[in-house]
Amino acid sequence: MPPTKDITKLKSRLKLAASTKSGNIHIIPTWSKWAIKKEGTKRVYSLANTLEEAIESVNRVKTSKKIIIHKKDGSILEN
Questions:
Q1: S-S: 48 plus which of 6, 30, 53, 74, CB 3.0-4.6 Å?
Q2: 43, 49, 50: which is closest to 25 by C-alpha?
Q3: What does the pLDDT look like over 8-50, one tens digit per residue?
Q4: Considering only CA atoms, which of 33, 20, 34 is closest in space to residue 63?
Q5: Which DSSP state fits 40?
Q6: 2-22: b (≥16 Cβ within 10 Å) or e
Q7: What is the DSSP track for 6-25?
C-alpha cells in the first residue's frame, strides 16, 4: 500500500482533474455532431455540426485554459 502522503496527493490531483474550476474544455464526438463541454460537468455546453465549427466556437469564448479534442475512437487528439 502506498504511503498516506502519496494517497493524499493522488486524491488532490484527481479532485482537481474532475473540478469544473480547471477551465479545460472538451470537444467530444457524438453520433452526428460534436459536443462541447466543460471539464468535470455532465452537461453539454453546445453542439456543433463539424469539428471546425466546435473549435471556432470555443475560441470565440476564450475562457478555457486548454482545449481537449476527443477523436471518434475515444483517444485524445494531440494539439
A1: 53
A2: 43
A3: 665 665 555 555 567 788 999 998 999 999 888 888 889 999 9
A4: 20
A5: T
A6: eeeeeeeeeeeeeeeeeeeee
A7: HHHHHHHHHHHHH-GGG--E
